[in-house]
From TrEMBL:
Pfam families documented for this protein: Zn_clus
Keyword Nuclease in record: no
Protein source organism: Aspergillus ibericus CBS 121593
Stored InterPro entries: Zn2-C6_fun-type_DNA-bd_sf (IPR036864), Zn2Cys6_DnaBD (IPR001138)
PROSITE patterns named among the record's database cross-references: ZN2_CY6_FUNGAL_1, ZN2_CY6_FUNGAL_2
Keyword Lipid metabolism in record: no
GO terms for biological process, alphabetical: positive regulation of metabolic process
Keyword tags: DNA-binding, Metal-binding, Nucleus, Transcription, Transcription regulation, Zinc
Molecular function terms, GO-annotated: DNA binding; DNA-binding transcription factor activity, RNA polymerase II-specific; zinc ion binding
Lineage start: Eukaryota, Fungi, Dikarya, Ascomycota, Pezizomycotina
Domain Zn(2)-C6 fungal-type, residue spans: 19-49
Protein name: Zn(2)-C6 fungal-type domain-containing protein
Length: 412
């Protein structure tokens, strides 16, 4: 090719395709797909490219399927995702602009000071399942929602690091989950929990620096490749988030914001190993003790994984609500087709024999998609463990949960 031809080709090069308007406003990378980019299709946004007519508003949004991997546990996948678009004003953390909070302030005041931070594009590369987003909005002020529905749950999760150190458990992590060995990710998180309990005004900066080092190591490590590693990875991220979000230091909470999409991705990845059981018809027959005892170790893992996955999205939604997310959407069940066992007797069993006895002698309830109606008709306060009380107070409201327990001779 002659020099003249090269010059002519460069001079008449086709115009460079530009990002769609939605990605441009959000300052996010656009994949330039037509008629709608992946980001707009996933969020049900109208995708408009400069110089092109927008697709019809009546056009059906392209389906974004995800192919579930083959695995041992026959997992159920998310059907409807509670989504949040990170279309925030660009922000930078400027010392002196953010007021250091008083430790006595309400959690709403603490988190409301956190400016939203744009998460890196690569952190949101996980492809969620196709969703039919159902938008629901409450007319109640955020402060009232926190006071009437979330405060009990927030108080519980603030105690999680202490529980993990002293009791080797949380409401979503069974006490015997790591009896055969704890993955490195959880070992580091447990060490940070112990440091967190010992913090004071003098050592807090050093402890927070240690948190950053451990978190950086966790994010730089290879992706979890086994069920127990995937569960430990997600649980460790939860603990780090709790300690950062509810630490009195404003910069600790600001640094927790970029981990939200990472935690969300970890929650979705954990679903690959989770089996959500379907309701079974009532029967008067009991399974053999030996069969129930043999299933205990698997039940401990699966119930911990079910609760961890559910709590992951519960924590994310609490954070997004309190920080004033203007594009928060939810279908009332955290966007998941899920189920878990409401039974303090099963959850507190520490041996296979105790588990088998609890399974055959005590009633247990399968809570599907956040529906407590059937359980509330038959359950007693002794059946409801801390995880159940946390979600029950969120679904019913704290006063209604107190009333249900009080009518049966118990307190929240």
């Amino acid at each position: 090719m002659s020099a003249a031809e090269i010059h002519s080709e460069r001079a008449n090069a086709p115009p460079r395709r530009k990002s769609c308007e939605a990605c441009k406003v959000a300052k996010r990378r656009c994949d330039l797909a037509w008629p709608a980019c992946f980001r707009c299709a996933r969020r049900n946004l109208v995708c408009v490219y400069p110089g092109r007519q927008p697709p019809s508003l009546d056009m059906e949004t392209p389906s974004l399927p995800i192919s579930p991997p083959e695995n041992l546990f026959s997992p159920s996948y998310a059907e409807v995702q509670c989504t949040t678009d990170f279309n925030f004003l660009p922000s930078t953390v400027e010392p002196g602009v953010l007021e250091l909070p008083d430790p006595e302030k309400d959690i709403l005041d603490l988190l409301a000071q956190c400016p939203p931070i744009q998460p890196p594009a690569q952190l949101l590369a996980f492809q969620e399942p196709s969703t039919a987003v159902i938008r629901t909005r409450s007319s109640m002020p955020i402060s009232e929602i926190v006071t009437t529905r979330l405060q009990f749950g927030i108080d519980v999760l603030k105690q999680a690091p202490r529980m993990m150190v002293l009791e080797n458990q949380t409401p979503w992590c069974h006490q015997q989950l790591y009896k055969d060995g704890m993955p490195r990710s959880m070992q580091d998180a447990l060490a940070c929990c112990a440091l967190y309990m010992a913090r004071n005004e003098i050592n807090t900066p050093v402890i927070l620096s240690s948190f950053k080092t451990r978190i950086d190591d966790l994010l730089a490590s290879p992706p979890p490749s086994t069920p127990i590693e995937a569960l430990a990875y997600t649980q460790s991220l939860i603990l780090y988030q709790i300690m950062r979000l509810f630490e009195g230091d404003i910069y600790a909470r600001v640094s927790a914001e970029p981990l939200i999409p990472i935690l969300e991705t970890a929650g979705f990845n954990l679903l690959n190993y989770v089996h959500f059981p379907a309701p079974e018809p009532d029967t008067d027959s009991f399974p053999p003790m030996d069969a129930v005892m043999q299933s205990w170790s698997e039940w401990v893992y699966q119930e911990s994984a079910r609760r961890t996955a559910l709590f992951t999205f519960y924590l994310i939604q609490i954070y997004r609500l309190i920080t004033g997310d203007n594009n928060l959407s939810c279908d009332g069940r955290l966007g998941l087709i899920h189920s878990w066992y409401l039974s303090a007797h099963l959850w507190s069993a520490q041996t296979a024999f105790d588990f088998a006895v609890a399974w055959n002698e005590h009633q247990h309830f399968l809570i599907c998609n956040g529906d407590f109606v059937g359980a509330l008709q038959s359950a007693q306060p002794a059946d409801v463990d801390l995880f159940g009380r946390m979600l029950l107070s969120t679904v019913l409201g704290i006063d209604q949960a107190k009333a249900w327990l009080y009518s049966r001779g118990a307190i929240l």
